[in-house]
Amino acid sequence: MTSLLSGRGLVKRYGAAYALAGVDIDIAAGEVIAIVGPSGSGKTSLLHVLAGILRSDEGVITLGGQRVDQLSETKRSELRRTEFGFVFQSGMLVAELTAEENVALPLLLGGRDRAMAIDTARTWLGRLGLAGKEARRPGELSGGEAQRVAIARAIAHRPKVIFADEPTGALDTKTGHATIGALVEAAKETGAAVIVVTHDREIAAMMPRTVAIRDGKIEQPVAA
Amino acid sequence: MNPLQLALRVLRVDRRTQVSTVLTALGVAVATGLVLLLTSLPYATQARAERTLWQHPTGFTESGGQVSFASSDDQVDGQVITRVDVAPLVDPADLDLPPGIDRLPAPGEMLQSPELAHLASTMPASELSDRFGAKPAGLLGEDALMFPEQLVLLVGHTPDTMPANAYQLPELAAGVAQPDGLLTLLAGVGVVVLLVPSLVLVASASRLTAARRERRLAALRLAGATPAQVTSMVAAETGLAAVLGAVLGVAISPVLHSLATWVPWGGGTWFAQDFILPWPIVVLVAVAVPVLVVGAAVAGLRRVVNTPLMAAGGHTSKPLNKGRLLIVPAAVLLFFLTLSMAKDSSAALLPLLASLGFLMWSPTIVGPWVTSALGGFFTKVWRKPSALLAGRRLRDDPKAAYRASAGVVLAVFAGSMALTLMPSLESEAGYYSAYRDSVLYLSTDAERAPAIVDEVDDRLERYGLAARAAQVGEVQLKQGEEYLQGYVVSCANAEVLLPVSLDCETEPAVYAPSGAALETVSYSTESTPDGGASEKLAPLGVTPVAASTDVVLIDPSLLPAGTELSNVDIAVPADGKSRESARTALLAASGGAQVISKEMKLGEQNSELADLRRVTVIGLVTASVLGGLSAAIATAGSVMDRRRTFGALMAAGTPVHTLARALRAEAALPALVATVGAGALGTVVGVGLFGLVSESVPVFSPWLAAPIVLGALVAVLAASVCSPALKRVRAEPLADE
User: Fold this and answer.
1) CA angle, B680 then B685 then B689, to 5°
2) CA nearest neighbour of B629 among B368, B364, B407
3) How many CB atoms lie within 10 A of CB B347?
């Protein structure tokens, strides 16, 4: 298996406490994995370090064979904007914007023109079952719908990796499963790898591969 | 746990509440300080008027007075000198003297203000001290001065050496001192113009925690708290900051007062004690401002008190009624209606002021609608995310977006009005005189005139000036049934002194617009049975030479004997530096008569306009800074409200500067639009008000662009906080809330 995103010896400290205490992890192109663990185990820190939101104190991260852990903040921002997509717990959508505008926003901020950005947004909203709801505001959508808008926003620019941090945390079980299903299906269409951080064992069980983490260390590889 | 304890607990643990409390307290402090300063202005002018009642007494008596009194204004190097001539009519020991004057100067002596004494000691006598015609005998105390640097002198006389225009006073400082009406009016306008942005600043500060507080209170309501309990909690939270702010405002008010003493008004600066307010007023303001702030905070709770679920779950704002648009045209119409009434009758002044107040209030109704419409426009035509974000934000909560600019709108409105009025009034200012602009002159009577001319000429020669004084008598003339103004002056002097162009005859002559026969007119001192005065005519007996002049010029030798002169002027032509010496010669020779010159008349007008311009600029700048701070805090609050979303966008790789650019546009647009609108409305009102006092065409100066500049200033201030606020958001953990 050729690794798309790789972390070696990752260490992240907060004062004297270790959030990551030497983590090795590889994710292949198009692979879907779940990172599971109890609260405070380091799973969100691992996701943030791999995505370049946080800088690790030690260790090496490569994307497509290129080191990315030594990049400047500007370069890492550019990497996150172009190569990665993000889905957060409660969508974190801009309340004043409509669904299609929320999806189009990262494209617009990246310099795409209005027509192209809105067109792409509408396409992805349609694929995620939100056709007809493009003009609704986040406050007018259900929790599951809002998360699907967030997925559309994460995938609209066709990233190589999608990072999802507790994407079902605010949803009921049924809606949560449907949302994860939508995320995995969408990623499959674009060939993106998906890394889902969750504390929900049922959600993790839906993934082909699960990595468990405890006290900042990979506990055991769990086969699919 | 009582509401105050709850408020203190929240304050102890929540950093954002701490920031909000500090900013609210600062806003209240600024508001309290400004209100205390503006309230003190009428008291300050009253204090000035009481100290200087002896210079400008308002009471006089026909007989039995304590003193004979005359006053005149003089000037040196553009500064006004107030001269008071006085002669005791009773035993000096029985005189009632005002504070700052410990004794009346003896005849031939004078008391000077310290600044005048200093100036007189540094200038040549021919340019200043000679004109006083008296020996320095002491200084006037501070309590007798209008302002610290006032140039004033009190000259002692015997009754028979007093100037011709002297009159009797029951005491030296007779009458009732009145505060400066214009400054009192401006202070009233200032309270409105500056209090509004101060309160907007308070509102913006408390808005920083509004969303979180609303959720907390909604949770408390859902948990069973009564509306009264929730209201008490908010009153305690806001009251804590407001009381702290009011105390701070009272504490900083001496600093504001001491700054205000440096701002000239009416020719000079102020004494520190001018601004001392009676303590009941201080207490009233210190109580009223926090009460107002707490009242506003409680009023803002209506939503959470009525429907806690809606507050807890967010809300959708209702579109604003288009009917709001009618308010401004209605207010403008009403204003011009009352304006036309005020042109005909001064009794309509109150309705005019009321309609002006209505007009000033109208933008607060129309502003949110325009803001919403602007937002709607941007959401339709946007090409960049900045326009989209701004448009949606404006459309969603236009009242809040407009509120941040409301204070500036009011200030810009008042400023534009003043900036339209002032250049127009300045264009009206001018010097209208029968003499050429270079001439200085004084008025006296025919009896004293020859001696004054001799004395003036003697002094002019001593000062090395070639110019000489000339008498110009005034006489009324009749030509058929038409009355004409005549000047008794030689042709040679007329050519130098009057704005006429003549071909002088070799012999004494009369020059008139037409050659018909003329008669001089005198009036009987005995009244006719119907109460009038009978005319006595004396033919000139000389055929006038036709000349291109509006008035009749009569050589003194041709004036019929016994003709009554209505006035006699002593005039001296002088240019450049010789003007101060010519002024000195005229004043010294006349014993304190009023000398009139172009620079003095223009100086008075310019001084008043400069005062107005100064307070307008100070008011505008203060309001703009306050407005800018409000807008900046509102912007920071808006970023904080959406911190999780922005945090997520930045985590997803959106550069801070890209997001900041979008937010800057969002913050700047309402301020810019609102100030342009307010500027236009203020200009219209300024034009209307100018029409009340003049029929001339208003002058539009480049200063009218100031509102745009101020709008930009506010926008820049507001926008400047976007980047640091976003950087702060980026530094926070993504899940923090």
Assistant:
1) 150
2) B407
3) 9
DSSP letter for each residue of B661-691: HHHHHHHHHHHHHHHHHHHHHHHHHHHHHHH
In this structure, is residue A3 part of a structural domain?
A: no
Adjacency order of strands within the sheet including A66-67: A17-28, A3-14, A58-63, A66-67
Give me the amino acid identity at B660.
A
* Residue at A4 is within a domain: no
- Chain A touched by B1 (CB under 8 Å): no
Overall number of domains in chain A? 1
Q: Give the pLDDT mean for A162-180.
A: 85
pLDDT digits (tens, 9 = 90+) for B668-698: 777 777 788 888 888 888 888 888 777 777 7
- Joined together, the tokens standing for residue B193 give 């113009």
Find the distance separating the first CA and the last CA of chain B, reported in whole Å.
Answer: 25
CB B30, CB B626: distance < 8 Å: yes
Q: Do B382 and A114 touch (CB under 8 A)?
A: yes
Identity of the residue in B382, B653, B735 whose CB atom sits nearest the CB atom of A84: B653
Q: Is B389 on the interface with A (CB under 8 A)?
A: yes
Is the whole-model pTM more than 0.90?
Answer: no
Say whether pLDDT at B298 is over 80: no
Is A17 contained in some domain? no
By residue range, what is the domain housing residue A172?
A: 31-53+73-222
* A94/B642 CB distance under 8 A: yes
For the ranges A55-64, B234-243, B482-491, B628-637, the lowest mean pLDDT is seen at B628-637
Of A79, A95, A106, the CB nearest to B654: A106
Distance CA B101, CA B153 (A): 11
**For range B387-403, the mean pLDDT:** 79
User: How far is C-alpha B555 from the chain's CA centre?
Assistant: 48
CA B549 to chain centre: 41
Residue A36 counted as domain residue: yes
Instruction: Scan residues 302-321 of B and list those with Cβ closer than 8 Å to A.
Output: 314, 316
pLDDT > 90 fraction of chain B, expressed in percent and rounded = 19
Range of weakest confidence among A197-211, B242-256, B389-403: B389-403
Determine whether the interchain pair A86/B655 forms a contact, defined as Cβ–Cβ distance below 8 Å.
no
Tell me how crowded residue B532 is: count the other CB atoms within 10 A of its CB.
10
- Domain of A194, CATH number, reads 3.40.50.300
For B461-519, how does the pLDDT look when each residue is reduced to its tens digit (9 = 90+)?
Answer: 998 888 899 999 998 888 777 888 889 999 989 988 988 888 888 888 888 877 667 77
How far B652 CA lies from chain A's nearest CA (Å)?
Answer: 5
Q: A178-182, B437-441, B637-641: lowest mean pLDDT where? A: B637-641
Residue B87's DSSP bridge partners are B68
Q: Where are the domains of chain B?
A: 1-53+177-315, 67-169, 439-595
Whole-angstrom distance, CA of residue B505 vs CA of residue B511: 10
* 8 Å CB contact of B652 and A85: yes
Burial class (CB in 10 A: 0-12, 13-18, 19+), B695: exposed
Q: For residue B478, with 0-12 CB atoms within 10 Å meaning exposed, 13-18 middle and 19 or more buried, which class applies?
A: middle
B67-94 average pLDDT score: 89
Contact A44 B735 (CB under 8 A): yes
Contact at CB, B654 and A94, closer than 8 angstroms: no
In chain B, what residues touch A93 (CB-CB under 8 Å)? 645
CB-based contacts of B692: which residues, under 8 Å, 6+ apart?
A: B339, B342, B343
Across the range A157-186, mean pLDDT stands at 86
> B401 near B670, Cβ under 8 Å?
yes
Q: Is A109 close to B385, i.e. CB distance below 8 A?
A: yes
**Whole-number Å distance between alpha carbons of A24 and A28:** 14
Q: Average pLDDT of chain B?
A: 82
Confidence of residue B223 (pLDDT cuts 50, 70, 90): low
Q: Give the tens place of pLDDT for each residue, B159-196.
A: 988 887 888 998 887 778 877 777 777 787 777 777 77
